[in-house]
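Lecture 7 notes: from sequence to structure.
We start with the chain below.
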Amino acid sequence: MIGLGKKTLLAAALATLCGPVAAQDSIKMGALATLEGAFTVLGEDGMRGVQMALAEFNNSAGGKQIELITGSSDASPDSAVRAARKLVEQDGVQVLVGPLSGSEGLAVKDYAKTQPEVTFLNGSSAAQDTTLREPAENFYRFSTDGAQWMAGLGEYAYNEKGYRKVAVLAEDYSFPYTQVFGFLEPFCRLGGEAPVDARFWVPIGNKDYSSVIAALPDDVDAIYVALGGADAVNFLTQYEQAGGDLPLIGGSITVDQTVLGSKGRTRDFVIGTPSAGPISDTWDNAAWNDFVAAYKAQFPDGFPSPSLFAHAYYINTKAALLALDAVSGDLSDGGAKLRETLSSLEFDTPTGKVSLDERRNAIADVFLTEVIEGPDGNLVNKTISVTPQVSQTLGVSYDDFLAYGQVGRENPSCE
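Predicted structure tokens for the same chain:
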């Protein structure tokens, strides 16, 4: 019995010694996206972007295997924090990529401040204040924000389309506030109008747009629409069926492939809609074409072209993997070297170079686009122009940009 006890103690000691070594052979990475609710298809494509980056790195970085653990939310801040907390505190992830939606990002940013030894990288969340105000030192966004995504669109609507007065329809939360600001700031500065009483704000998951459609004013030149996923499909379908004939201006996710690639909707209605965002389906660039080909090969049942959600999750995941390679997968210091590496990381993406500002928000190219029917019959966004290396403060100083105030329903007033 004594001998058996010694063997048991020896085995336990070896297990104690070998456990950390074995654990260091892999790195736990979390991926959090909206896999429930109105934005489910967006989250599914975001997860495809994660898988693309991992496949590119053969599911390893820094000589260690990546153990991917996924989490699901429904686009609400509470659900995103619950999922993030489970991934970090129960599953033990050391690096977390996500979330997807705007207000989720604000909430996860605040949660990140309570977990200083975990490294957080954005998914596709694009609310401005995730990084602009009171950022978390361990939260990185290699995908740009919703105001950056609008670069060039306000000027195009005013100067090229000749629009002078627009109505606004958007979901009532932080990301659409950011998009509306990004579009209206230059549009209004040039002399355009978007009266506050012509702005319509709806909750995520709204299914009936009849009252909004009936209330749309007649004395506007176009409607700026910032809806995503099922919300966008529902509005576009109902507006077309109601005989709506006002031209549309699209928010980035309103004419993304997650909407254009949907089934059972009148297609001709959105052709000609201008928009802007971090990708363009028809950009004639070798890196983008390779990315599209890899997406189609890996996900034949996906969209005709990768969505901006696949693109954003891919870029943020790739940033994590590049930084893990640079530090040889060493997270023994609580990820400090990894985060230092991320802060200065600069690399080429399928849509051009990306780097970070001092608040760890991306500086990257943005595409002005217009919806057309592609050669294979699918609706795609045609490239009109590219605005290079758009900063979060849109080219003005940080202090001057803060003077614009926080984005919201009435900022800018534009009357």
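Points to note: The longest helix spans residues 2-23. The chain has a mean pLDDT of 93.
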